[in-house]
Amino acid sequence: MSRLRIVHRTGFSYSESATASYNEARMLPHTREGQFVLQATLETLPAATQHSYIDYWGTEVSTFEVLTPHQSLVVTATSIVDVRPVPVPTGTLSWEMLAESLPRSLALAECLEQTPATMPDAEMIAIAERARAEGTGIDETALAICRVVGDAMEYRRGVTGVNSTARDAWPTRSGVCQDIVHVALGVLRAAGIPSRYVSGYLHPDRDAPIGEPVAGESHAWVEWYSGRWRGFDPTNLVEIGPGHVYVGHGREYADVAPLRGVYAGPIGSELFVQVELTRLE
Asked: What are the boundaries of each domain within the chain?
C-alpha cells in the first residue's frame, strides 16, 4: 500500500472582471476497491458556498457560484488517498452472454453507444473488425485493441484541444491521454465491447522520494465490461495500479471534466491547470 497527496489547482482567468460565475467541479476521489480516501477538500478563491451531489454516473460533484466581480477563479482540490494493488479482474462473460445482457442493462447499452468524441473513422472500425476476427475472448480482444491504439499514438501536448475528438487525433496518431482514450473507446465500442472513460490521477514516478512533490496532471484511462469492469491505461500501456487514483467515469471526457462553468461578463477566459502529487509513504 502507498499513500499519495494530490493537490489539483485549476480555474479561469478572465480578460476583464466577470460579474458572476456558476461552476461545477469533479476533482475529488472517493473510496472504492483499491483506494481509501483519508481526506478530500475543495477550496475556491473567491470563497463560495458549495453544494455536493452524486451525478448520474456516480461521480461526486461540487457546485458553487460566485456572485461578486472577480478577475479570476481558482479551485484547489486537496486529497490524501491510500492506494493498493488489486487483482486484475477476470471476465466471466462470453460474447454470446454479453449480447444477451445488453438489452437488459441501460448502463451497458449506454457504454456501447458512440459519442461525438469517440465516433470512429473507417480505419478505427477496421481495427475493431480485425480484433474481433481473431476469435479471442472479450478481455483479450479489449487488451489487444488498447495496445494497438496505445502503440500507434504518440503522447504530444499542444496538437489537440479540449474539444478534439477521436477523428481529430487518430489521423495524426498523436494527442494527450484524453485523445488516446477517446480513440480506444471508439474502437472498443465498434468491436461491441461496452466501455467507459475514467478520469483520475497518475503519479508519474513510483520511485520518487517520500515527501517530494512531483508535477503531474489529470489522467484518463478506459474500463470495459466483461462480467466485471476492468481498467487499462492505453497511454502508458499498463494495467491500472497503485499509482492510479480514480475520480469518476462517464461515456467521454465531457461527462467527467474536472471543472466547467459559465460566467457573466466580457468574452474571453483562459483555463489554467496545475497538479502536484506527493508520496507520503
From this structure: 2-84+257-279, 95-255
The one-letter amino acid at 60:
E
If you classify domain 2-84+257-279 with CATH, what class do you get?
Answer: mainly beta
CA-based nearest residue to 177, from 160, 195, 196, 194:
160
**What is the spatial distance between Cα 135 and Cα 123, in angstroms, rounded to a whole number?**
20
Reference 76, options 17, 16, 5; nearest CA is: 5
Spell out the long-range contacts of 43-46 with Cβ–Cβ below 8 A and sequence spacing 24 or more.
Answer: 43/75, 43/76, 43/78, 44/73, 44/74, 44/75, 44/76, 45/11, 45/73, 45/74, 45/76, 46/70, 46/73
**Mind listing the pLDDT tens digit of every residue in the chain (281 residues)?**
689 999 999 999 998 899 999 999 999 999 999 999 999 999 999 999 999 999 999 999 999 999 999 999 999 999 999 999 888 888 889 999 999 999 899 999 999 999 999 999 999 999 999 999 999 999 999 999 999 999 999 999 989 988 999 999 999 999 999 999 999 999 999 999 999 999 999 998 888 899 999 998 899 999 999 999 999 999 999 999 989 999 999 999 999 999 999 999 888 888 899 999 999 98
According to DSSP, residue 71 is labeled E
CATH number of 95-255: 3.10.620.30
CB count in 10 Å sphere of residue 58 = 12
C-alpha 107: how far from its chain's center?
18
Spatial CA neighbour of 25 closest among 181, 217, 247, 222: 247
Cα(157)–Cα(136) distance, integer angstroms: 35
Q: What separation in angstroms does the CA of 117 have from each of 25, 155, 157, 164, 235?
A: 21, 18, 18, 7, 17
The DSSP secondary-structure symbol of 32 reads B
